[in-house]
Amino acid sequence: MYKLLRNILFLFDPEQVHYFSMNFMRFFCKIPFANNWLSKQYAADIIQLEKKVFGLTFKNPVGLGAGFDKNAKYLSELEALGFGFIEIGTVTPLPQNGNNKPRLFRLPKDKALINRMGFNNDGVVLVAKRLREWRETASGEKRVASSEKQIASSSKRVASRKLIIGGNIGKNKSTPNDEAWKDYETCFRGLFDHVDYFVVNVSSPNTPGLRELQQKDSLKKILLNLQNINEEYKDGCKPILLKISPDLEREAIKDIIELCTEINLEGLVVSNTTISRENLQTPNNELQKTGDGGLSGKPLINKSNDLVKFIHGLNNGLIIIGSGGIFTGDDAIEKINSGCTLLQVWTGFIYEGPAIIKKICRTLINNH
Ligand SMILES: Cc1cc2nc3c(=O)[nH]c(=O)nc-3n(C[C@H](O)[C@H](O)[C@H](O)COP(=O)(O)O)c2cc1C
């Protein structure tokens, strides 16, 4: 069924299809009982898959990667599809449009995508407001949090919902790298009351110079500052993870791991998209027409799994969220065997459709 729908959707521009599909789902979910129907079809609430990781209870380990719901607009609809967690963002302090369109491309021969979105997002203030409203409506206590006190008390409910929300944070394009730490701080403070964990994104290939922030000194400044702020919050610290590029040299990875353990980071998201175009079935002339950007999907799985194995082999105790090329239950098992505790899908969701979560969960339960 989804294959047929996919063939039709793939006739149109990928970015437009993305928003069309999500807006359609939102419209559909407004029909009475539609949310329940969707959950019955797709969600696999299997108690055995519940997992406690960095103090949070994930109803299942299959999450949605950053960049899908950048602005936290479709959380209830995505929750109905059965995701165990959703990472919103990348969010930057100020809203920004991102790169010129077209900036998202399909490579069907490779079951892949190339994107150069460039952190298009509504900015931290609006995204935080949306998250607060979502929590209020979702808990059935729609109310206006007008005073500081009310905002603080609503924040205490962050973990009371079943769906775990990660906040993926970045810097604005116009912010020079030596001031980037301030952007991460702004986003951290802005989202603190509304997300369950944070991911520091320094690995997107689509913001010029961003990946240079993976160098040890720049990274230390950003992460140490966030950990210090974390300790200021009396209601408890939020887990902070770092999302890394699969294109880093192993020596650079070792430096990063050393730093992460030194400042007690909870873990890593491994990995972001790659700039490599190796071993693709898509002809070169088509790739050239597509241009720069991060490659995701099937061609990324071995590269990101190798990186997971390498990091896991260093025995550092960091939790790894596996991202890159998960399409099937077997892919998920391979990631877990490589050293991942939690998983994220993105490109697989586009190619396999909403049943992907239930299928993966069923495979995981059979291998339990
Ligand atoms: C269109 C698109 C936009 C993305 N935007 C972000 C983003 O804003 N921040 C981020 O950390 N990762 C972003 N990613 C990377 C994904 O979260 C994920 O790490 C990557 O696609 C690899 O997983 P996959 O092979 O399952 O797609 C984006 C990916 C795609 C395809």
Commentary on this structure:
The structure is a single chain. The chain has about 375 residues and is an alpha/beta fold. It has one domain (about 1-365): TIM Barrel (Alpha-Beta Barrel), CATH 3.20.20.70. Helix content is about 40%, strand content about 15%. α12 (about 330-340) crosses α14. The longest helix has 17 residues, at about 215-230. It is globular. Residues about 140-155 have low confidence and may be disordered. It binds flavin mononucleotide. Flavin mononucleotide binds near residues 104, 119, 168 and 324. Flavin mononucleotide binds near residues 90, 300, 323, 324 and 346.
Bound molecules: flavin mononucleotide
Number of domains: 1
Percentage of residues in strands: 15-25%
Which CATH first-tier class would you pick? Alpha Beta
Overall form:
globular
CATH homolog superfamily: Aldolase class I
Mean of all residue-level pLDDT scores: 92
CATH architecture: Alpha-Beta Barrel
Q: In CATH terms, what is the fold-level topology?
A: TIM Barrel
Distance between the termini: 29 Å
What is the share of helical residues?
Answer: 40-55%
